[in-house]
Amino acid sequence: GQNIDQPTEMTATEGAIVQINCTYQTSGFNGLFWYQQHAGEAPTFLSYNVLDGLEEKGRFSSFLSRSKGYSYLLLKELQMKDSASYLCAGPVSNDYKLSFGAGTTVTVRA
Amino acid sequence: EAQVTQNPRYLITVTGKKLTVTCSQNMNHEYMSWYRQDPGLGLRQIYYSMNVEVTDKGDVPEGYKVSRKEKRNFPLILESPSPNQTSLYFCASSGGSNQPQHFGDGTRLSIL
């Protein structure tokens, strides 16, 4: 499957900003997803980028650069409830086979 | 309410005893998929289905079977479970490859 890399863990303080990077192989790429997963729960959809640039949704924004095989998820004004794992995922060439990164565990401290 | 329903939520069983994990969605989605999630490895796709009677292997299909006889159902079958299939399993559905996936609540399988 697609090789998708993201950091394992990040820690930040309540109210701060954290940026989670994701890199992937560019061949056969057709859009990239970000999901949030709280411990013991199912992943939930955060964002989908298919064109280059930044998409903002409230406190969360996602950026994509297709030529660089790079994306990031930006979490602003961090709250304790944002402590979770954040998963980067991309469709591969046939558009239906989906590969996930191993996830980045974000811990928000008071 | 739009949802993906998996059953059972938890199962402890023994090596070699066939089991089926059911998955049903009520959103009329064409695309369904099964994943397993293991610590440090993230979500890995087992099988996926693009429509009724159309299924294909994901990254880790060995030891698993699926079927898609109806649009709403996509069961995962372990014909002869082994301890290395102990994991957390998620079923998901979506309206297409560029649409968000809706995940079930997960099934925690322990194979002794």
Topology (SSEs and partners):
The complex is a heterodimer of chains A (110) and B (112).
Chain A: E1 4-5, E2 9-13, E3 18-24, E4 32-37, E5 44-49, E6 53-57, E7 60-65, E8 70-75, E9 84-91, E10 98-100, E11 104-109
Parallel strand pairs in A: 2-11
Antiparallel strand pairs in A: 1-3, 3-8, 4-5, 4-9, 6-7, 7-8, 9-10, 9-11
Chain B: E1 4-7, E2 10-13, E3 19-25, E4 31-38, E5 42-51, E6 54-57, E7 65-66, E8 76-78, E9 87-94, E10 102-103, E11 107-111
Parallel strand pairs in B: 2-11
Antiparallel strand pairs in B: 1-3, 3-8, 4-5, 4-9, 5-6, 7-8, 9-10, 9-11
Largest sheet of chain A: 6 strands, mixed
Biggest sheet record of chain B: 7 strands, mixed
Into which percentage range does the β-strand content of chain B fall? over 45%
Low-confidence stretches of chain A: none
Q: How many β-strand stretches of chain B?
A: 11
What pattern of helices and strands is seen along the backbone of chain A? EEEEEEEEEEE
Number of helices of chain B: 0
| DSSP helix fraction of chain B | under 10%
Shape of chain B: globular
Characterise this structure.
The complex is a heterodimer of chains A (110) and B (112). With 110 residues, chain A is mainly β. Helices cover 0% and strands 55% of the residues of chain A. Chain A has no helices and eleven strands. Chain A has strands at 4-5, 9-13, 18-24, 32-37, 44-49, 53-57, 60-65, 70-75, 84-91, 98-100, 104-109. In chain A, strands 2, 4, 5, 9, 10 and 11 form a six-stranded mixed beta sheet that branches. Chain A has a five-stranded antiparallel beta sheet with strand order 1-3-8-7-6, with no helix packed on it. In chain A, strand 7 (60-65) and strand 8 (70-75) form a beta hairpin. Chain A is globular. The N and C termini of chain A lie far apart (38 Å). Chain B has strands at residues 4-7, 10-13, 19-25, 31-38, 42-51, 54-57, 65-66, 76-78, 87-94, 102-103, 107-111. Chain B contains no helices and eleven strands. In chain B, the strands form two sheets. In chain B, strands 2, 4, 5, 6, 9, 10 and 11 form a seven-stranded mixed beta sheet that branches. The interface between A and B is medium-sized, with 24 and 24 residues.
